What we know:
Helices cover 0% and strands 68% of the residues. By secondary structure, it is an all-beta fold. The protein starts with 7 loop residues before the first strand and ends in a 13-residue tail after the last strand.
Amino acid sequence: MITDPNNLIFAASREFGGAVGYRFSYVWRVETEHSRRWAKIQGLNGAKAVRGDFDAHTLGVHVFRDFRTCRKLRSFIGAGTGGGILDFDLKGPADISPDFIVIDDDTSISTYGNVFMGPTYHINSQMRVGAGFEYFSCTDQAAESNLGDIDGINRSYNFFLSLRWRPDFRARRYFPKP
């Protein structure tokens, strides 16, 4: 639950991302990720009748620390940073007065930071499935109104599923002899 003031209330939110990474030890790995997040806006704290759309594209770098090496079920923590393009399109009256109209039709460039944690199950030496929790925070953006700007807070608390494939470059099937 998000209790910060001026947070957007999302419905039907989705995220899809892809990443390419490198494991440089048994416990440390790094990845670069591109993701897209989109949602319907179903209100703003203090303006529950606000409606609109949200769309974001992000590109970032994440570092992970894995625990319980040599086990099938392993936990991890991670952190990352990056940038993105945020597109908000919303409009509606504030709760305190129907004459106080919140409007935002803006595309902006933003930086972000995030942290992750969760478990990963190693199906075999190449396939892993995971689940986890992510705290994601973009640079705060102000929403406009007919009475002045309202500070906005861009944070989300996400649950995710993941599938990772690790190629085995030592196998000859990937690099057959000529």
